[in-house]
Design brief:
Residues 501-526 are annotated as: Disordered. Helices cover 33% and strands 24% of the residues. It has 18 helices and 22 strands. Helix 17 crosses helix 18 (499-509). It starts with a strand and ends in a 17-residue tail after the last helix.
Length: 526
């Protein structure tokens, strides 16, 4: 099936999320749509899938113009979509989820789930999915849940399958399996639209790459194009993709976490006996698929977790049990994963957000009165230093793009003397060029002698910044390993193996003896 988008424009008020986009997907082709977060990729696919009505332009299927009033129309035309956030009912079985919205019935109107089970088994066997039709979705790993979403589309005879950021919640091994599945789907005649901002995966899977920047197509590229060339197309200027990082020179260990446990309201241990240290002048990165306790770990350190036990010690002083304000005053800088909810006050100006931690002390305040002149001077300095794109320091923070909001948070937290710096998803929603700058600032904080802890779901970022890597799985620490640990070992740890098991399994796969164990500080096995 050939799919064409001609002059697609989607406006929200005066903002054009998509601006006269042309795109052609040929039969049995993997067409990658590459662009930064906020470039307009997902909006375009929501138009194609019938979730948005285009402001202008037309969609053609095999040369015939079509109009979609909703996803049902798109599916009837042979277009399926796997969203970045899965659309599954956790308490339903695989078969019930697949049947939902396309139910077949027996005589007397009873649901015919056996027919759905048969189709699931057929598709699983054809593509090697290994999905049990009677398994509860909530019991399945995220990689298998994604296969269920693909099965849902294939059961409805999708000829074009849209995959929106499909590797965002996968381990490296699950990513490799997905790329292999995409190859099988292509070979069977299915076309794939692969939406991503990850250069490595796009180059591995695509037949052709279309790059979108700020809602417009800036050009097509072959998979053989150099990563630097693709990054330049995405950002609009040359970008350095590798971080020039000298080896760490750790000094005293001033931050220690011992047997930290956080219990959720339902009684589940979302952080389960975690122990590690960070020395002055080193970066510990925390890896893991999203939802394995990373958020609760950082919240417990900052004093936000209500039911936390164990010990969190900075400079010889216990932090657990102290208020957030006391912990910040102890010298902890913190960049939360959700900047709009936890990192900024959207209605406050950029200048005010840049002093949220310091507004009540000198030089920004004297007694009960704040100093507008000093706050304005601080804002001017940080806007220039961090290249925050804003009309002025007086506009509300909510008016900035996501990437510039992130720069405001980073600028604020790195603008005071720190004894510990923690950043969760520090470059989420930030363009490639700004990532380069923020990584250098994080590295500068390390070289200044600050213990640094970075939490990220981007494995490339984890490996780029790390001096050591801690891996979390279901709230437990699978190990703390050297920065040079191979991706396949890290992937196995992210899937639940401890460090020794992962090394042995990875070595067995390559038929080589496992390397000697790391002799790194604080290594703990789950």
């Amino acid at each position: 099936m050939k799919l064409e988008l001609r002059g697609i424009t989607k406006r929200f008020g005066t903002f054009a999320a998509n601006d006269h986009i042309d795109l052609t997907v040929e039969d049995s082709q993997v067409h990658a749509l590459l662009g930064e977060n906020g470039a307009g990729k997902s909006t375009l696919m929501n138009v194609l899938y019938g979730l948005y009505e285009p402001t202008e332009g037309e969609i053609l299927v095999d040369g015939r113009a079509v109009s979609f009033r909703g996803p049902a129309d798109a599916m009837a035309a042979g277009i399926g979509m796997v969203h970045q956030h899965f659309m599954l009912v956790p308490v339903f079985t695989v078969a019930e989820n697949v049947a939902l919205g396309a139910e077949t019935t027996k005589a007397a109107g009873f649901l015919d789930l056996e027919a759905t089970r048969k189709r699931i088994r057929e598709i699983s066997a054809r593509y090697g999915f290994d999905v049990d039709p009677d398994a509860l979705v909530e019991d399945l790993p995220v990689g298998v849940q994604q296969r269920v979403e693909i099965i849902k589309a294939l059961v409805r005879d999708a000829k074009v399958l849209i995959l929106d950021e499909p590797t965002a919640v996968l381990t490296p091994q699950e990513t490799d399996e997905l790329l292999a599945i995409i190859g099988e789907l292509k070979a069977s005649g299915t076309s794939i639209i692969f939406i991503s901002h990850k250069l490595r995966e796009v180059k591995a899977v695509a037949d052709v790459i279309t790059v979108i920047r700020r809602g417009r197509v800036v050009g097509d590229a072959a998979p053989s194009a150099a990563p630097a060339e693709l990054a330049t197309m995405m950002v609009g200027r040359p970008v350095i993709l590798t971080l020039d990082k000298a080896p760490a020179e750790p000094k005293d260990t001033t931050f220690s976490v011992r047997d930290l446990t956080v219990v959720a309201p339902n009684g589940q241990r979302v952080v389960d006996g975690v122990t590690f240290d960070i020395a002055q002048g080193e970066i510990l990165t925390v890896a893991g698929v999203q939802g394995n306790g990373q958020t609760e770990l950082t919240e417990a350190i900052l004093g936000l977790a209500k039911h936390a036990a164990g010990s969190v010690v900075l400079d010889g002083k216990e932090l657990l049990g102290r208020s957030v304000k006391q912990i910040l005053e102890a010298g902890v800088g913190f960049v939360p994963e959700d900047r709009s909810h936890d990192g900024l006050v959207g209605a406050f100006s950029v200048a005010e957000n840049l002093v949220l931690d310091l507004y009540d002390r000198a030089p920004f305040a004297r007694g009960l009165a704040m100093s507008p002149a000093r706050i304005a001077a601080q804002a001017k300095e940080k806007i220039e230093e961090f290249d925050i794109r804003t009309q002025s320091a007086d506009v509300p923070a909510s008016s900035l793009s996501g990437g510039n909001q992130q720069k405001v948070v980073m600028a604020r937290e790195l603008s005071r003397p720190l004894r510990l710096f923690i950043a969760s998803q520090p470059t989420r929603g930030v363009d490639v060029g700004s990532i380069e700058f923020l990584h250098r600032r994080i590295l500068a904080e390390r070289d200044h002698g600050t213990p640094v802890m970075i939490v990220s779901t981007e494995l490339d970022e984890i490996m780029e910044l790390a001096d050591r890597i801690a891996v979390l799985y279901r709230g437990r620490l699978m190990g703390v390993v050297d920065a040079g640990t191979p991706r396949d070992v890290l992937g196995l740890m992210m899937a639940g193996m401890n460090a020794e098991e992962a090394r042995a399994a990875a070595a067995q796969e390559t038929e080589q003896p496992p390397p000697a164990g790391d002799h790194t500080r604080g290594e703990t096995h789950g």
